[in-house]
Amino acid sequence: MFAHSFARRTMLLASLALGSLAAPAGAQAAAWDSVARILQAPPTPSAGYVRFNFPRRDISLTLGGVTVSPAIALGTWAGFAGTPDSAMMMGDLVLLATELKPVLAELAQQRLGVSAIHNHLSGESPQITYVHYHGGGRGADLATRLSAVLARTATPRPVTASAAPVTADTARVFKALGLTGRASGNVVQMSVMLVSVPVTMHGMTVVPALGYGTPINVQFVGPDRLVATGDYSVLGEHTDAVIRALTENGITATAMHTHLVGESPKIYYIHFWADGPVEQVLKGLRAAIDAGKG
C-alpha cells in the first residue's frame, strides 16, 4: 500500500518542483519554517527542493589515519520537494551499528519507506551504516514522523548554522573540477548532475537534485593532501568507465548500489574514497566526472 501512495505523491514532484525553483531562496526557505522548527534545523534551499542537514558531529570517524570531517561523510539529511501542504521527503540516515535496529523499527512505526541499507565507505572506524528513506504527505507531518526516527539516534539537535573561516584552497578545487560549491574550514562541498535524461519512478518524474545528484566532498588534510568522498550517480552504461577512471587515478570505489526503488532508467551510485596529493586526487575526481556524463 505504501508503494502506491508513494507513487501517487511522486507524480507531483515535477510540477511542484517548478514552483519551488521559481520562488526566491528566502521565500522558499520561509515556507518551511514549521518543518524547520519540528526538525530543529535550518532549511537550506537547493535545486528544486529544501534540505535540512544533521551532521553527526557526535561521531569521531577515522579512515586511513585521518579524522574525517562530519561534513564530508557523516551527513544525515532530509530533502523536501513540493509544498509544505503536499510534499515528498527523501534523505539519508547515518547510523552506528547500535542504532540500526531501533531506527528501522521506528521507520516502520512512522510509515516511512526504506529504499536502501548499506555502506558508503570501507575500513572506517567506527563502522557506519547508511539508510535511505522516503515518504509523502504534509510537510509538518513528515517532519514529526522523521523527528521521532532521529530521536532513536544520538544525532545532535538542535542544529545551528555555523561556518568556520575557510582554510581550503577553493579556487584550486573549483578550477580543477569545473564546479562551484560551498566551503567551511578545510572542507569543500560540491554537487554535479551527471544524468541528463529524465528519471521516473512508477512513471512519474523525480526531482533530479533530490534523487540522483552527484555530491563530491573534499577535505584538506595538509597543504598538499586531500581526502575526498561522495558518490557518482550514473546510468548503467557509465559504471565501468567511472570505476576505471577512479581506479586509474588511485581512488578506491568503496561501494556501488542503488538508492531508489523502481526508477527508470536505473541509476547506480558509485561511492569512493580518495586520499593523496591534491592534484592527483582532483585529477581523478575530474576524470570520473567526465566518464559519468550522459
Question: In a nutshell, what does this entry contain?
Answer:
By secondary structure, this protein is an alpha+beta fold.
Structure explained in plain terms:
- It is a single chain.
- The protein has 294 residues and is an alpha+beta fold.
- It has two domains: 2-150, no CATH class; 170-292, no CATH class.
- The chain is built from eleven helices and 17 strands.
- The strands form four sheets. Strands 1-2-5-6-8-7 form a six-stranded antiparallel beta sheet, sandwiched between helices. Strands 9-10-13-14-17-15 form a six-stranded antiparallel beta sheet.
- The chain starts with a helix and ends with a helix.
- Residues 1-24 have low confidence and may be disordered.
Oligomer: single chain
Approximate helicity band: 25-40%
Number of helices: 11
Structural class by helix and strand composition: alpha+beta
Number of domains: 2
Largest sheet: 6 strands, antiparallel
Sheet-strand content, in percent, reads: 35-45%
The total beta strand count reads 17
Order of helices and strands, N to C? HHHHEEEEHEEHEEHHEEEEHEEHEEEH
- Strand numbers in spatial order across the main sheet: 1-2-5-6-8-7
Q: Report the C-alpha radius of gyration, rounded.
A: 18 Å
* Overall geometry: globular
Give the distance, in angstroms, between the N- and C-terminal Cα atoms. 34 Å
| Unreliable residue stretches | 1-24
Question: What's the rounded overall pLDDT mean?
Answer: 91
